[in-house]
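Q: Sequence in, structure out?
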Amino acid sequence: MLFSKLLKIVTFSAGIFLSVSASAAVNIANSAEVYLNSDPGSWVGGGIGAPNVTWKHGIDGIFSGGPNYESFDRGVQISYNDGNYWTFQFAAPSYDPTTNTNIGQSLEVGLYTNAQRFPFNSPTKPGINISGNGRGNNAQTGWFDVLEIEYDATGNLSKFAVDFKQFDESSTTSGLYGSLRFNSSIAINTVPEPSTFAIMVIGLVGMVAAVRRQTLKSTTADNAEQQI
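A: Exactly. Output:
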């Protein structure tokens, strides 16, 4: 059973790697680095071979970056080749409420929470998929914080910086934290939590929403009293 799971994961990951590598929009990094920290017992995290590692472009392996399935509306994929082929995929929700369409959205700077396994994530949820060394999950949850993302004049990925946490299967405690930089000067973050600024923004958004709901309730109540 374990062999069957490994075979499925290897075939799936290799297929993704080859399909993206075939795209003209995939660029080899000028500089890149990833820090990975595995919780004890993490299936995917166990593939890094140590409690934590740092891999650098041109020293430990080769990084390349481009779109998921040849379209940046399906997110970004960073591939790392040190002989074990690691894949880092991130996608915004495919559903866009402003246009009421489900054709995908480009990633933007910001914190994405309640992520699900890409490409099987709900249209209203962001997608994440970290796999490598023959290891991947059938299902997973997590978050990722896009700190920087830029494209060059031809539309190819030029800079990307992200911190992320992926939880194995249905676990809420065991997983793999990472801090990935692709042609970015932003320093690696070894603390496995979203940035303080991102958390503050989420808190402020929640407060604004709560105030709006309370205001709406008060207005509705006042209108009802006037009608009586």
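The chain has two helices and eleven strands.
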